[in-house]
Amino acid sequence: MEKVLEVKELTKQYTKVLAADKVSFDIGKGEVFALIGPNGAGKTTTIRMISTLLTPTSGDAFVMGHSILSEPEKVRECITYLPDEAGAYKNMKGIKYLQFMAGLFCSDLDEIAKCIERAKEICKLGDRLNDKIGSYSRGMIRKLLLARAVMTKPDLAILDEPTSGLDVINAIEIRKTIKRLAHEEGMSFLLSSHNMLEIEFVSDRVGIITKGHLMVTGSADELKQRYNAANLEEVFERVVKQNEIH
Amino acid sequence: MKFINLLKKELSELVNFQMLIGLVATVAIFMILGGVMKTTIDEAVDESENITINICDRDNTDFTESIIETIDAVNDDPDSNVTAKINIIECEGEDYSAILEDNDISGLVIIPEGFTASYEKMEQPELISVSRMTSAATMSNMDMGNEAAIDLIEACISSTIAEDTGMNADQYKLMERPVILTENTVVDDKEARISPANIMSKIMMQNMLLPIIVFVLIMMTSQMLMTSISNEKIDKTLETLLSAPVSRLSVISAKMLAAAVVALINAAVYMLAFSVFVSGATDEVTETVSMAAGSSLTVDQALEQLGLNLAFSDYLLIGLQLFCTIMICLSVSIILGALIDDAKNVQNMLMPIMMCAMVPYMISILADINSLPMVLRVLVYAIPFTHTFTAVPNLMFGNNMLFIGGLIYQIIVFIVCIFFSLRLFMSDKLLTVSLNMGQKSKYKKKNKKNSAQDDEE
Q1: Same domain (yes/no): B176, B203
Q2: If pLDDT is split at 50, 70 and 90, which confidence band does B452 have?
Q3: Three-class DSSP category at A28
Q4: Which helix (H) or strand (E) holds A63?
C-alpha cells in the first residue's frame, strides 16, 4: 500500500516534559488511523509536529515523501489540519470562510469554486452558509470546519477530536463522512479521539499512546484479540495500566 | 494572491459595522463640539462688542449723572467698535438675588449713596458690582457689562481728576498709556515684529493636533494587532492558518499591514474631525488676539518670517518618524499578542504600550523635555515614542541633530523588536507560550485536558 505518512522516531522534549518519545507509525492511502491515549499522553503534540506547527526535538515524519523538517511548505500542501475545539472567524459568513480557506490552498479560481461546491455538499448547511459563523451552533461549526478540512482533497487530513462536544446525530454524520471519504475517495486520515466507540467504527488501524510512548498499533480486531478484550475500551485500559506499572 | 487573500480577510475582520459607527460618531461628536465652541466664542465676541450695562444710581447727583452720560458717549466715538446699551435700573436694599431676578438681568453695577461725597473728600468711593453665576463653565459666566462699566467709571473719574488738576488731554493720554510697546520675537538669526505670546499660542494650537493623532495611532495599532493574534490563538484559528500552505511571514505581514492601514484610516478621520473642532474653536481667537495686540503682521506671516513654518521635506521626515512609531507598535504587539491566552487580558497587556505613549504625551504638553533634569531627560528619551511627540518642535526650531538622533534610535528599537517578535512568531513558542495573569484562562482550560505541552505552561 502506498504510504501517505511515515513517522520515524518523532520526539518532542519540552523543558520539563517528554511529550513524545520516538513515536513511529505510518498511514497508507485511503486509511483511517486513530491515535488514542489518556489526557496529556502526547497525541496533540504528535499531531502538531506532523502538521508542521511544532518542530520535533529529534526524528522526522514524511508526508507523501516530504520531510516535515526540510520541506514543511510542501507538507502543508498535502495536509489539512482540524484542531480540537477549533473555532472560525465569527464575523465571517460561512461561505466567505470557505472561500478564504480555499484561496490559501488553490490559486486557480475554478479550483476554488470546485472546492467550495464540494464543501457545500459535505457540510450540508445550505442557506445558513450565508449567515455569519457567530450565529452557528457548535455542531454546525464543526461540520463547516470538517468540510473545510476535506474540500481541497488533501492527501492526509489530520483531525484532532473531530466529534468532541457534539451530539450523537452530528457525531454520527461526521463519522460517516470520514469513512466515506476514505473508502470511496481514497483520502487518508489521522484522527485523535477519546471515544472508543467512534474509533472502532471509523478507523482501520489504531495506535495507543501513553506518556509520550506509542505502545501498540493494529486494527481494532487485532488489538482485541491480542489483549483478549471484549472491546477497544478494555484494550485501552490494559495498555495504559501496563505502561503505568512499567 | 495568497497574501492578498490573507490581507482581505484581516481587513474584513478589522473593518466592521461597529468600527464604522464608532468613526462616524467620533466625527459627529467633534463637529458638534466644534460648532458649540464656535457659537460660544462668537457669542462672547459679539457680547464684548455689544455690551449691555446695567447700572443703578443710588447717589443721584450731578456727578454720577455726568458719569452715566460719559459712558453713553462711547456709542458716539467713531474709533471704537464697541457699542454699549445702558439700562438704568431702579432698585433698593441688598437682596441682590431678588434685584437680578426682578429685572431679569445677570449683572448690575450699583453707585451707592455717598459716592460723590467720598469723591469730593478725595476718598476712594465704593462701587458695588453684582454678577450672577449660573455654571462652572468659563464661557457661560463671561458678563462683559459690569467689567466695562467699572472701567468706564474709573476712566471717567481719572479724567475728571486730571481736568481738575489742570492737565491737558495729551498729558492725560500719556499718563493713561505712558509707553508704546513694540514687541519683537527672535528665533535663531531671524526676527519678526510680533509678541512671542501670539507665536506660542498659534504653535500650541497647531501642535495640539499631532500628539493626539500619534496617541490614537499607537493605541489603535497595538490593540488591533494584539486582539487579532490573541483571538486567533484562543479560537485555534491560528493553528488552522499556520498549517495551511502559506508562510508564517505572510500571515504576520498581512496582520501587520491590515492593522496599520485601519489605524491610519482611523487617524485620518480623527485628524479631520479634530481639525474641524480646533479650527472652530481657536482660529478666530488667535487672529483676534494678534490684531488686538496691534501687530502689523498676522501670526501666519510672522511664523513664516521666523522660519517656523514646516517645509515639505519636514513633513516627509515627520511621516517617516510616524511610520517608525507604527512599526515599533506593531512589532511589540506581536510579542504581547502571542502572550495573551484570554481575551480579557488584551487591556492588561496594552498597559505597557499605553504608559509608554502617555508619559511622553503628557510631558510634551506640559513641559519642554530638553529642560528636564538630566536623569529624567534620559529616561524620557529612552521611551521610543517620545521622539515622535518631539518631532515637530525639533524640526520647527532647527534641532535637526536631536530629530535625526531620535529617528535613528527608533529605527534601532524597531529592528530589535521586530527581530524578537518574528523569532517568536516563527517558533513553537507562538503556540505553547502564554502569560497567565493570575486567572485560569479559557485557552488553558481548553487545552488542559488534551495536550501535553500544557504542563509546560
Answers
A1: no
A2: very low
A3: strand
A4: strand A58-63
Is there a contact between B347 and B358 (Cβ–Cβ < 8 Å)?
Answer: no
- Answer yes or no: is pLDDT of B90 > 50: yes
Residues A50 and A34 sit within 8 Å (Cβ to Cβ) = no
From chain A residues 159-188, the ones with a CB under 8 A of any chain B CB are: 160-161
Residues of chain A falling short of pLDDT 70: 1, 244-246
Same domain, B317 and B439: yes
Q: Is 0.95 exceeded by the ipTM? A: no
**What's the CATH code of the domain at A235?**
3.40.50.300
Give the global pTM.
0.75
Q: Is the pLDDT of residue B138 over 70?
A: no
Taking an 8 Å cut-off on Cβ atoms, the answer to whether A45 and B2 are in contact is no
Whether residue B326 is found in the same domain as residue B419: yes
> Does B259 share its domain with B349?
yes
Containing domain of residue B116, as a range?
51-134+142-180
Instruction: Flag whether residue A84 sits within 8 Å of chain B, measured between CB atoms.
Output: yes
Residue A63 lies in a domain: yes
Residue B27 forms part of a structural domain: yes
Tell me which DSSP letter residue B457 carries.
Answer: -
Same domain assignment for residues B56 and B89: yes
Residue A39 near chain B (CB below 8 Å): yes
CB contact under 8 A, B432 and A89: no
Q: Do A14 and B455 touch (CB under 8 A)?
A: yes
Q: What is the DSSP letter of A212?
A: T
Q: Which residues of A touch B1 (CB under 8 A)?
A: 103, 107
Chain Cα centroid distance, residue B8: 35
Give the residue from B229, B451, B455, B456 with the most A CB atoms within 10 Å of its CB, the best one to mutate. Answer: B451
Best to test chain A binding among B4, B16, B240 (most A CBs inside 10 Å): B240
Given an 8 Å threshold on Cβ–Cβ distance, is A86 in contact with B239? yes
- Cross-chain Cβ contact A105/B432 below 8 Å: no
What letters, b where the CB count within 10 A reaches 16 and e where it falls short, cover A53-76?
Answer: bbebeebebbbbebebeebbebbb
Return the number of CB contacts < 8 Å for A and B: 119
In a domain, B313, yes or no: yes
pLDDT of residue B436 exceeding 50, the answer is yes
Query: Cα distance from A74 to chain B (closest Cα, Å)?
Result: 8
Instruction: Give B210-251 pLDDT, tens digit per residue.
Output: 787 788 888 888 888 898 888 888 888 999 999 999 999 999
Task: Pick B455's closest partner by Cβ from A17, A43, A101.
Answer: A17
Distance from CA of B19 to the nearest CA of A (A): 13
Is A142 within a domain?
no
Q: What is the pLDDT of residue B114?
A: 92
Q: If we measure between CA atoms, which residue out of A86, A90, A80 comes closest to residue A151?
A: A80
- Tell whether B104 and B214 lie within a shared domain: no
Q: Which domain holds residue A235?
A: 3-86+156-245
Same domain, B176 and B200: no
Q: Do A85 and B446 touch (CB under 8 A)?
A: yes
Q: What digits encode the pLDDT tens for the residues B406-415?
A: 999 999 999 9
Tell me the CA distances in angstroms from A67 to A30, A189, B273, one per residue in order.
20, 18, 55
Distance from CA of B446 to the nearest CA of A (A): 8
Give me the amino acid identity at B148.
A
A168 domain residue, yes or no: yes
Q: How many domains, chain B?
A: 2
Q: Is residue B416 part of a domain?
A: yes
Q: What is the pLDDT of residues B28-82, one digit of tens each?
A: 887 888 788 778 777 777 777 778 889 999 999 999 998 888 888 877 776 666 6
Q: Is A131 on the interface with B (CB under 8 A)?
A: no
| B309 and B176 share one domain | no
Q: Report if residue B123 sits inside a domain.
A: yes
pLDDT of residue A72: 93
Distances (CA, A) of B180 to B191, B193, B288, B292, B312: 19, 14, 20, 14, 39
Domain count, chain A: 1
Q: Which of B158, B153, B154 is nearest to B56 (CA)?
A: B153
The reply to whether A118 falls in a domain is: no
| Chain A residues close to B246, C-beta within 8 Å | 76, 104
- CA-to-CA distance for B59 and B56, rounded, in angstroms? 9
Cβ–Cβ gap B237/A88 under 8 Å: yes
Cβ separation A53–B431 shorter than 8 A:
yes
